[in-house]
Structure formats: C-alpha cells, structure tokens
Hints:
39% helix
Amino acid sequence: MLTANAYLDGLNLEQRRAVEYGLNEQGNMPGGPLLVIAGAGSGKTNTLAHRVAHLIVNGADPRRILLMTFSRRAAAEMTSASSASRGRRWATRPA
C-alpha cells in the first residue's frame, strides 16, 4: 500500500528532513525559509525539487515559493523534477 507521501520514499534521512522542514504532523506550515548547503553530487537539486513539491502538495501557494540556484542547468532540473514529483507541470518564464 502506498502512503500519502510515497513520493518521498526515495530520499535518504537527511534529504527527507530538509523536505519536511517546517511542516508539522497536520501538514501546517509554520516554518520559515530553508537553506540547503551540501557538497557536489549529494542530491541538493533532487531534495529542493521534492521540497517544492511537498510544500505545494501540503497547500502552499506556488506563487509564494522562491527557489534559487547558481546555474541555469540546476534551475531547469529543479523545475522539471518538482513538476514530475507533483505529477503535473506548470509554466515557467525564462529569466
């Protein structure tokens, strides 16, 4: 049986903690901003994409989410991965 958060099953413990940061057990969002700093190849892009999807699934307004990265490649990966993990795509505007 799939859990409500089955899309998080592929994350390790640290990644999952970052994704779920600020959400209580009822799915409310009292937490503030989250900064993720980690080494190359550690799964930052995947973690942040899942974080965005998790926030939206739990009722966050997508227009109030700011997701920043230093490269266009990572930005494209995050947009694609967060859309895919939510099961749908949303329009993006190039910078």
